[in-house]
Design goal:
Length: 894
């Protein structure tokens, strides 16, 4: 390495200054036209650092620490100071980083050329090897048939001499056969020198017993260059070395060798290790992939483009020409006779100006779109409607899509033969049929701005933007991989539902047992919500301390892409919904109440978005952040859980299924357990299984939903996902769901208005079968719906709505009472008047339920025991008397 040209290395570092400084000084930052760090050792600076590197202008690449007396120095000096190594080692490392491993001057001029060591440690030809090469050249020169073959490929003698083409001598192979007269060529390196390693081509009717019918070479794939790298800004990659020779010949004739470098792999479709390094491509402004115009060439170009971290252009020789071409006898040549490579192009009268035009008009190369997959006609010219989709969680053509960020690790070998691992992030999109897809930028005319590029998945789906990794994604790659490979073990829908139901049952307490069915089915629905046009919002309503937060947390742990947010700004909440594309829990979101107090203004925009988020067609909304005035297109669609104590306004409540929470009775407290780490591991296993279940069942779910009888109204729209999944679980689940949904229909406007709340309490009693009742029971029901201190001037005063005379007066004013006199009854020491609701009140509930009230309960049936009573924590005045009575009875019977 003593002959490394230090000036060239320093110059290369300067030409790549922005990439170099980010590698050397990752703790630094860009400030104006400089990269600034704490010092030359990249010590993090508390403020603006003193060590600066110019990124542009006449001082580009100059480094200086302004807190020392050091004069400016170049990036190579910075490299050896940064890592405290000698300058020769720094030059070696820098060359490796740049993709230019060995740099040697080959002339006395200032123009310095570089040579890349390939992984096979190819050595330059020694004098005796050069003599041997000359012998092979002489053998070719006197072989008339071989020279005629090269002439038929339009190669001139000057080109043949330039690449030292020769003819192999006879040698005996291991099988005993003798091979000879193959076309030989020494491998040419990046600095223009020839190595001692030869490649071989078969010459039809000349080569005896060829190793391959086309070409062959020993060792690992290498990069073959037609001429020396002299800071050309463009590189043209051919599929084969024979094509590289003909392209070189025309470039030389047109004096363009200093503008365009030509190279090829020595092993056909195999990609040399050097071409997988970023540094190999970073030095070129334009990269042209000129592989053959056929499916194999397309695949090779696509595969190579994955290693190029900038735009590269796909150049194809044309399959037809604008003007007709003719045989000597005057007949038109068939299209297939033109061939697919550049040798055929030039020997078939393709002109060099047309070749340059093809380069100039070449589209950007990208992963190929599978035309057989897409429903769009991508081979028809014209102007078309634009209807891109947001692919995150989408359901299109009976298939679900799930983007996931993966870490790709690959074993590499550096130019010194040392193995290491390279890593990068890659976001892919998994489809429910078990295939994996990537984002593709469709080929575009040269100069197309990035904002106008068309993006598709590799299955042809037109998408709005490149898939982004979901920060809230819950499906893990090892489970995804098991699904893709058909190894995911998925139980029946009924078995999974039972696990979800039992998990909820043992971790949260709900006063209405049918609500467990609603929540359990909701969990399953989150995994297939995009199959449906409408989904419900779950409204968890109850006083403080009734388990709303705990329920939200468990639901988020079970559901698809589940997450919980609390008191946040409207803009943050909106972006969170759009980003999560899953189940979002809004814990204690008082802002949705119609009388939410001082915070209602802050959440008004969010409430408007929530009102349309239940339906897929109305869920997209342009959102303007009032602080930054930035406008974004956000998608609010999806199942959500909202909890609060205040209720929801009349419009939003029609999009909701309400789950009531109350204080847990003493008898239930021992049944609800605090979940352990082991429990959460089981919950996570259920969630991973549900992801696979959703992908496997999405088509069946769509088919089942289409068979449901038409139901009118928004309530039936939002209930459809639960009904479909309940049907898959079994008849018993469907029946229990219908009971739960029938109870939902009696829920009226959530409000803090005592009179409106009284109406709801009456409907709840009638729904439970209490046609005859006492005012005391009505007050107990009101206490479950309103905060006990609501409406009181002082905490020790009794609110008006808790006074029996107020309740009786309002019931008569509202016209809900029958005039029948049922007298009074003594109940635990209290004389209580029994009343009866009139037909008007009863029929209103029957109309909402869509069914009759089958069982009429005794007015005192609500009191069956304090341990299980829903009113036991509502300051029930009977509780102390009943407990005393039960104690006396216990003593008496013992």
């Amino acid at each position: 390495m003593n002959n490394i040209d230090m000036k060239f290395i320093a110059s290369q570092l300067k030409d790549n200054v922005e990439r170099v400084v980010q590698y050397l000084y990752p703790n630094g930052k860009k400030v104006g036209t400089h990269w600034v760090s704490g010092d030359v050792y990249d010590t993090p600076a508390s403020g603006n650092g003193s060590f600066k590197i110019a990124l542009s202008g006449k001082y580009r690449g100059v480094c200086k620490d302004f807190n020392s007396d050091d004069t400016g120095f170049d990036l190579l000096d910075a490299w050896h100071k940064r890592f405290n190594i000698d300058k020769k080692t720094a030059a070696q490392q820098a060359a490796q980083f740049l993709g230019t491993v060995v740099i040697q001057p080959i002339t006395k001029s200032k123009l310095v050329e570089t040579q890349r060591k390939d992984d096979s440690k190819t050595k330059k030809a020694k004098p005796n090897q050069q003599n041997w090469t000359q012998k092979l050249v002489s053998r070719l020169k006197v072989n008339t048939h071989a020279m005629h073959y090269l002439a038929s490929r339009s190669l001139k003698w000057e080109t043949i001499e330039e690449f030292k083409l020769g003819l192999s001598t006879p040698y005996k192979k291991q099988d005993g056969t003798v091979s000879s007269d193959a076309l030989t060529f020494p491998i040419r390196s990046e600095d223009g020198s020839f190595s001692s390693v030869n490649g071989y081509y078969c010459i039809p009717n000349v080569t005896l017993n060829p190793t391959d019918k086309n070409g062959w070479m020993k060792g690992k794939p290498q990069v073959y260059f037609t001429h020396a790298y002299r800071k050309q800004t463009k590189i043209f990659v051919c599929e084969g070395i024979k094509d590289a020779w003909i392209v070189y010949q025309y470039l030389k004739e047109n004096d363009l060798l200093n503008d365009i470098l030509v190279c090829s792999s020595t092993h056909g479709s195999a990609i040399p290790d050097a071409m997988t390094k970023e540094g190999f491509w970073a030095r070129f402004d334009k990269i042209y992939l000129g592989h053959d115009h056929d499916s194999a060439g397309d695949r090779m170009a696509e595969k190579l483009s994955e290693f190029i971290l900038k735009d590269c252009y796909r150049v194809k020789c044309p399959s037809t020409y604008a003007s007709a071409k003719y045989h000597a006898d005057g007949t038109i040549k068939h299209e297939s006779e033109w061939g697919a490579d550049w040798t055929d192009f030039f020997k078939s009268d393709g002109c060099f100006e047309e070749f340059l035009s093809l380069m100039d008009e070449a589209p950007i190369c990208s992963t190929k779109i599978d035309l057989a997959e897409t429903s769009d006609n991508l081979v028809t010219e014209g102007r078309f409607n634009v209807a891109p989709v947001e692919i995150n969680g989408a359901y299109i053509n009976c298939r679900m899509y799930y983007p996931v960020q993966t870490l790709v690790r690959k074993k590499e070998v550096d130019e010194y033969g040392i193995e290491y691992f390279s890593e990068r992030y890659e976001t892919v999109v998994v489809r429910s049929d078990g295939t994996v897809h990537k984002a593709v930028k469709s080929p575009a005319p040269r100069g197309t701005p990035d904002s106008e590029r068309v993006i598709r998945l590799s299955d042809g789906t037109l998408i709005r933007s490149e898939p982004r990794p979901n920060d809230f994604g819950t499906w893990k790659w090892n489970n995804i991989e098991a699904y893709i490979n058909g190894k995911a073990k998925i139980r029946t829908t009924s078995e999974i539902f039972d696990d979800v139901y039992n998990t909820l049952k043992k971790s949260v307490w709900l006063p209405v047992k049918e609500d467990y069915v609603i929540l359990s089915l909701t969990v399953l629905a989150t995994y297939v919500q995009n199959v449906f046009e409408s989904v419900p919002i779950i409204f968890l309503n109850g006083m403080a301390g009734t388990g709303k937060s705990q329920t939200g947390i468990i639901m988020s742990k079970l559901s698809c892409n589940g997450s919980v947010i609390g008191q946040v700004s409207a803009a943050t909440a909106a972006r969170h919904i759009d980003a999560a594309r899953g189940f979002v829990v809004f814990d204690d979101l008082e802002g949705i109440a119609s009388k939410g107090g001082k915070d209602s203004g802050q959440f008004s925009e969010l409430v408007q978005a929530l009102k349309v988020s239940y339906n897929k067609s109305t869920a997209e909304k342009l959102w303007t952040d009032v602080k930054t005035m930035k406008t974004e297109r956000l998608n609010f669609f999806g199942i959500k859980l909202i909890s609060n104590t205040s209720g929801a306004d009349d419009i939003l409540s029609t999009r909701m299924l309400r789950v009531q929470t109350r204080h847990m009775p003493d008898s239930e407290k021992g049944k609800i357990k605090k979940l352990t780490a082991s429990d959460f591991n089981k919950i996570e296993a259920i969630r991973q299984e549900l992801h696979s279940w959703g992908f496997m069942k999405c088509t069946e779910i769509e088919e089942r939903s289409s068979l449901f009888s038409d139901k009118s109204g928004r309530f039936d729209e939002i209930a459809l996902p639960l009904r479909v999944i309940a049907q898959m679980v079994g008849n018993e689940c469907s029946q229990e769901l219908e009971v739960a949904l029938s109870k939902q229909r009696t829920v009226v406007i959530e409000t803090n208005d005592p009179i409106e709340t009284l109406k709801e309490a009456v409907k709840n009693l009638i729904k439970e079968g209490f046609i005859r009742f006492t005012v005391t029971q009505v007050i107990l029901e009101l206490r479950t719906l309103l905060d006990e201190n609501f409406g009181s001037d002082m905490t020790n005063s009794i609110p008006e709505w808790q006074r029996p005379e107020w309740v009786g007066r309002q019931l008569r004013t509202l016209g809900l009472l029958d005039n029948i006199d049922l007298g009074r009854t003594t109940f635990y020491g209290k004389r209580l008047k029994v009343m009866q609701f009139n037909d008007h009140a009863i029929n209103e509930v029957i109309e909402e339920l869509g069914a009759t009230i089958e069982l009429q309960k005794d007015p005192f049936d609500f009191c069956k025991g304090c341990s299980s009573c829903p009113y036991s924590n509502s300051h029930c005045e009977f509780k102390s008397y009943r407990l005393q009575q039960e104690q006396r009875d216990k003593i008496r019977y013992n």
